[in-house]
Structure prediction request, 180 residues.
Amino acid sequence: MLEAAGVRFELTETSFDEAAAKAALAGESPAALAQALARGKALGVVTGDGLVLGADQVLEAPDGTVLGKPESPEALKNQLHLLSGREHAQHSAAAIAADGAILWEATETARLRMRELSESFIAEYAGRDFGANRTSAGGYRIEAEGAQLFESIEGSHFAILGLPLLPLLAFLRERGDLER
Prediction:
């Protein structure tokens, strides 16, 4: 998304332990969890200069619980059954750090209503491209065949893809890092 938007960047590993953070943050709201994970990722990169962007996305199931990335085709089927015919939320958060301090952060929430899915559709979908779908919370990629799962969407397309891009670009313009 950053590259497509014309933002120069380089990828860097973070020392942030996401699994430990998720365990420590159990009980937080899904939106607060996404923001805390984004902050942790940004602060987990040590750099002498420049900005560090950390981002994360959390899927909030209809019952308020967090759904992760499915670990098997069977887990994907279970997630699709849970979401079928119901609304869920994708909370996408980003944070920018410099010199060990957070300079900016934003969270955007998109609400998605999945259409009623038939047993046969779920079985075919889960078996067809599990390799790609297992990398996404909820087991779908809206930018690919996952678009077929939905009857309505409210919110930013970029938030569904995992980054509050428009607020990020506005921040970079305000700082003078991007042309106004």
Q: What stands out?
A: The domain at 18-173 is CATH 3.90.950.10 (Maf protein). The mean pLDDT is 93. The first helix runs from residue 18 to 24.
